[in-house]
């Protein structure tokens, strides 16, 4: 039952967090990091695993897998 719940959380949370990564605030933050990188400060933000520069499906898949794994681990810790 907990595995089903973990999968459900991944299916719901993935697209919601993918939408959040495309918000105007996230895009402004990404633009600032990109500008700093152009000035030679910090790492290249385009190499990040997720963010507004990645396609929606990738962000949804990334966050869905992360949340499903977290909830599956939490579910395995409880009493059976």
Taking all Cα atoms into account, the compactness measure Rg is 16 Å
Mean pLDDT reading: 92
What general outline do the C-alpha atoms trace? elongated
Biggest sheet record: none
Beta content comes to under 5%
**Amino-to-carboxy terminus distance:** 11 Å
User: Class by helix and strand content?
Assistant: mainly alpha
Number of E-state strands: 0
Element order, helices and strands? HHH
Number of helices: 3
As residue ranges, the low-confidence spans are: none
Helix content: over 70%
Spell out the blueprint of helices and strands:
Layout (H helix, E strand, L loop, with lengths): L1 H19 L3 H15 L17 H22 L3
In short:
The protein has 80 residues and is an all-alpha fold. The chain is built from 3 helices and no strands. The mean pLDDT is 92.
Structure description:
By secondary structure, this protein is mainly α. Helix content is 70%, strand content 0%. It contains three helices and no strands. Helix 1 runs antiparallel to helix 3 (56-77). The longest helix is centred in the C-terminal third of the chain and has 22 residues, at 56-77. It is elongated. The mean pLDDT is 92.
